[in-house]
Amino acid sequence: MGAETQVFGSLGLLLVVLAGLGFLLFLIPIPLWIAAWASNAYVGLMTLIGMRLRRVPPGTIVNARISSAKAGLDISINDLEAHFLAGGDVERVVNAMISADKANIPMPFKRAAAIDLAGRDVLEAVQMSVLPKVIETPRITAVAMDGIQLIAVSRVTVRANIDRLVGGAGEETVIARVGEGMVSTIGSSPTHKAVLENPDNISKHILSKGLDAGTAFEILSIDIADVDVGQNIGAKLQIDQANADKQIAQAKAEERRAMAVALEQEMRARVVEAEAEVPKAMAEAFRQGNMGIMDYYRMKNVQADTAMRDSIAGDEEDQSSGPKS
């Protein structure tokens, strides 16, 4: 029993020693310390331990420090660690600074960190400043002064402006401004043929406005890729206006016709009203002795004769206007 107890005790002590050694190696990343020392990017052991305690991965910080030192850049451990704690991408920032240094583009760490924390891809921005990017606008529709619609597409070559990346407008603003310039240039052209003959005038007019002001890019060139002829908007508008005028004239004519019909009905009503007064007048004349019975009969004969003549005249008009054999 004594021997077994000693064996178990030795094993327990060994496990405790191994656990303590593993925790010590985790707390003090000796391989990283050696790699940083061998790369002339020395990082103290206490600094590495402090990173562990601050929950900062030492591998990320030390590798970024080694990369910058090998590229000839002096970036302190505190700056790298502070950028990581602020939520930035340390490796991407260091790679962007190395790329900028190789391209002779001034890129201090504070500017690179600010660009990264602003939500922009700082490495892509540096690459775009070295290799310009081509942005194609959507199909822009505009109408020349002669009423012909033109549909144009342009390709905008831009280069990232490092100094304006923080706070500068993005690609959407550049596309919107170029589209606005295309619409205004085509709209001020006297004819659509002038635009088709010299589409480069659109590029020159847009470039002269300085549309890249306030953006994160610098416009290098604007090339008109395609110009198509659309509808005759001027003729269509004239047709629509003519139809509208026609409807207005018809409405006014209908209004005048309705007024004439109403006036005619009113006059007929007055005639009927006047005719209704005739029997009263005749009765009054009989009572006062101003009219005799023979006068009444003569008036009736005249009315009958007039009605007969009207009837005969109507029959003759019907026969003369009938179909000819």
Automatic annotation (TrEMBL):
The gene is floA. This is Flotillin-like protein FloA. It is found in: Cell membrane; Membrane raft. The keyword Cell membrane applies. It comes from the Bacteria. InterPro entries: FloA. It is a single-pass membrane protein. Homooligomerizes. Pfam families: FloA. It comes from Candidatus Nitronereus thalassa.
